[in-house]
Amino acid sequence: MGNKCLGTWGTRGQAEVYYLKNGVMEVKMRRWIPVLLIAALSLVISSCSPNKASQNDGGEAAQAAVEKQVARTTPTCPVTQPPDPPFTPPEPYSAPLKGEFWYGSPALWTSLPLEAAWRDLPYGGTGYSQKVFWWRQGYDWKAEPEPNLTVTGKRLDGEALPLVASKATNAFASDIGSAMLVGVDIPTAGCWEITGKIGEQNLSFVILVVGP
Length: 212
Prior knowledge:
alpha+beta; 2 domains; 2 helices
């Protein structure tokens, strides 16, 4: 069977020529690719290629949506941060507990979590329960089993009943030394300002209480 010309495509006599040879189609190219073919290919490529500006706009919109959602679900809480320089209590106290930092002054200080949040607290009939340890220079847990320390608390980011605090008692362990201990019940999750007072000395801190 001979070659059979099926047709041509192009301009000015320079074209692709399609032949059917022994039942198989062949394409024979002339010396240059037609301008119209290049234009057609460019059009197809440009229509299939993603628009970079559109991609950027879409990514920025998605990021903005995420940030907006975070802003809606994360309360604004001016939590207490580690002081700079760090507070170092007087001897015999030294390094803070793991994952916590000392906060206050030699007259009254406490230990707070570095993440500035209390999580996974047990919940009872009056709220989330937590034990708060306090220290002051010269305190002796044996000589003063019921220190004159009072603790109060209020929610900053919404309405809630006041914090309920127990009477202060004494505590001692090798890692905390001689300390004062107060149990607190926090009615709701949220941003809480807690204040300890002993004599004329006050110490306040802000912490985020995270619910389930």
